[in-house]
Amino acid sequence: MHRFANPAHFMRVSQILLPWLAGVTILLLAAGLVLALVVAPPDYQQGESVRIMFVHVPAAWMAMCAYTTLAAASAAALIWRHPLAEIAAEETAPLGAVFTGLCLVSGSLWGEPMWGTWWAWDARMTSVLVLFFLYLGYMALLNAFDDPTRGRRAAAILALVGFVNVPIIKFSVDWWNTLHQPASVLRLGGPAIDPSILTPLLVMALAFTLLFATLLVVRMRAALMERKIRVLDAAAGGALG
Amino acid sequence: MGFSTWLQMGGYAIFVWPAYGIAAAALGLLAAATVRRYRMAQRRLAQLTATRRGETA
Prior knowledge:
The structure holds 2 protein chains of 2 kinds. Chain A is mainly α. In chain A, 77% of the residues lie in helices and 0% in strands. Chain A has one domain (18-181, 195-240). Chain B has one domain (3-56). The longest helix of chain B is centred in the middle third of the chain and has 44 residues, at 13-56.
């Protein structure tokens, strides 16, 4: 594992992978949008407002998937102090925050016509709002110390402690009597959605996943280059001074 | 189904289009900022390696 986590190796492999990743992401996003906005039929209960779900559900999945990545990378960074794990965690956080924000906003836009309210303090919505603040807290803590190593450690510990929120989000609809409906795709007994709605949903989810992966790889490459720049700058400054 | 019927989204246009618009804007800006940062790092690194090569040559 350590061999693959070598930064130089990562730069080489990601350079080959990146154009493919970006290309497939764009194709899937285009296909997903056509399926979601044109091909998918209106729902018999929700009417055309069901189309909001093709943004909302994938955004919610990415919010949790990104947090799991953040927690796993933080654990790896704390245990092995590996620079690539540190960078992966740091670059995942803003992406996760954006997906969580999109989940909250799109949910609100669906809740108003369907439930008659933009927001309710039910367990699902409140725990996702907590997730959003965990991302913001992680990013704030990262830069709150003069010594970046201390900031990284404190933020990594927050990310790990906050991971307890992920199963709470997932099972909140089963544990509490929420306004938010229970799972209809990732549930025991298989999805309870018609294929005409499920297919666009899964294509959009795959597109969002690949978009997350593409952006994460580009940001990790940028962060590695920035580290190298700092070293070279310091060396040049030292030579001049 | 005509184009204007499609735009009306069965009366849910004011909810459906903002959801897609905000998602496109947020993800688009995120992607643009990411690419910009990447290009800047790439340029600066190329500059620095070029000067270093110049010094050693």
